């Protein structure tokens, strides 16, 4: 994963300070690309621990077309909690709960989760029902029937529904490519938090490529990551410098232990990471 460390160095060298909607300034660059060979190893960052169960939970949540955080919270994945919590915090029902107490209410009450856990028509909605089109299943069918197609695309950016989303899609479009029995994926990410988000995104779309390859009789090939606004938040700079002191280790391997007939029936337990030996986690605060 030297590519990832080089990405951080590139931002530090070439980026300019920029304001944004969160109120936390960034060191920002525009236009960058990395590529990872995922045919033998899985690109899970080793210079800090990445929460793989959270990666799997979020991806399966997308695949199922879900847009409520309850499934994530029930599976100890709290990466989306900040956005609905901010909405709840501004409501008349807010009773000075912490975000952890908010998550506990989501977990323990279906009624509370239904009212306060929805994020609007985010990724899963667009993947499975983009104005009535099931993009994910369509692209899987097309890979099987017409693998040389240049239209193997899924878009999460739906202009008619962006304003209804808690957070407009950062990873906004991905495309598959088939060659020599291998399936590759390229993601275009309009906005990328290099320290917190990008390691998660690399793992997520590589995992998606493994899954779609398994359902189409192919092997995983490459994951290509293309960025628009690629940035480091100014309150993450100490963490970035800490990470750059570390040396990448051998990458782990991914095993899919079970492949149910329907992709929606995949479970977190169906995936196993082997020989993952990362350096300790480096914590940082997400900008909402």
Structure description:
- The chain has 288 residues and is of the alpha+beta class.
- It folds into 2 domains: 1-67 and 182-274, Thymidylate synthase/dCMP hydroxymethylase domain (Thymidylate Synthase, Chain A); 68-118, no CATH class.
- Helix content is 34%, strand content 22%.
- The protein has 10 helices and 8 strands.
- The strands form 2 sheets. The protein has a 6-stranded mixed β-sheet with strand order 1-2-6-5-4-3.
- Helix 2 packs across helix 9 (197-215) and helix 5 (99-108) packs across helix 6 (110-116).
- The protein is globular.
- The two termini are 27 Å apart.
- The mean pLDDT is 96.
- DUMP binds at residues 21, 150-151, 190-193, 201, 231-233.
- Homodimer.
- It is found in: Cytoplasm.
- Keywords: Cytoplasm, Methyltransferase, Nucleotide biosynthesis, Transferase.
- GO terms for molecular function: thymidylate synthase activity.
Short description:
Helix content is about 35%, strand content about 20%. It is of the alpha+beta class and about 290 residues long.
The topology string of helices and strands comes to: HEEHHHHHHHEEEHEHEE
The best one-word shape is: globular
Name of the level-1 CATH class of the largest domain: Alpha Beta
First-residue to last-residue Cα separation: 27 Å
CATH topology of the largest domain: Thymidylate Synthase, Chain A
State the secondary-structure class. Answer: alpha+beta
Strand order of the largest sheet: 1-2-6-5-4-3
Total of domains: 2
Q: Estimate the strand proportion.
A: 15-25%
Count of helices? 10
DSSP strand tally: 8
CATH homologous superfamily annotation of the largest domain = Thymidylate synthase/dCMP hydroxymethylase domain
Specify the helix fraction band.
25-40%
Question: How much is the average pLDDT?
Answer: 96
| Uncertain stretches of 5 or more adjacent residues | none
- Main beta-sheet annotation: 6 strands, mixed
Give the second-level CATH assignment, the architecture of the largest domain. Answer: 2-Layer Sandwich
Evaluate the radius of gyration. 19 Å
């Amino acid at each position: 994963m030297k590519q990832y460390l080089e990405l951080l160095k590139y931002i530090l060298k070439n980026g300019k300070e920029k304001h944004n909607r969160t109120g936390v300034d960034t060191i920002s660059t525009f236009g960058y690309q990395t590529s990872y060979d995922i045919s033998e190893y899985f690109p899970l960052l080793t210079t800090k621990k990445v929460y793989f169960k959270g990666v799997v939970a979020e991806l399966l949540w997308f695949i199922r077309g879900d847009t409520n955080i309850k499934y994530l919270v029930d599976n100890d994945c709290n990466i989306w909690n900040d956005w609905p919590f901010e909405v709840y915090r501004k409501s008349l029902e807010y009773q000075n709960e912490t975000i952890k107490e908010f998550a506990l209410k989501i977990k323990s009450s279906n009624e509370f989760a239904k009212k306060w856990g929805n994020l609007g028509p985010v990724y899963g909605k667009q993947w499975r029902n983009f104005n009535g089109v099931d993009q994910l299943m369509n692209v899987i069918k097309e890979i099987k029937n017409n693998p040389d197609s240049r239209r193997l695309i899924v878009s999460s950016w739906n202009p008619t529904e962006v304003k209804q989303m808690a957070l407009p899609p950062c990873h906004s479009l991905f495309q598959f490519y088939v060659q020599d029995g291998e399936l590759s994926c390229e993601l275009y990410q309009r906005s990328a938090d290099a320290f917190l988000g990008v390691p998660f995104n690399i793992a997520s779309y590589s995992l998606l490529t493994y899954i779609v390859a398994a359902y189409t009789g192919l092997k995983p090939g490459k994951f290509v990551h293309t960025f628009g606004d690629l940035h480091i938040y100014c309150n993450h700079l100490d963490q970035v410098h800490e990470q750059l002191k570390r040396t990448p280790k051998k990458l782990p391997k991914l095993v899919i232990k079970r492949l149910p007939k329907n992709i929606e029936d995949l479970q977190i337990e169906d995936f196993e990471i082997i020989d993952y030996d990362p350096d300790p986690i480096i914590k940082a605060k997400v900008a909402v």
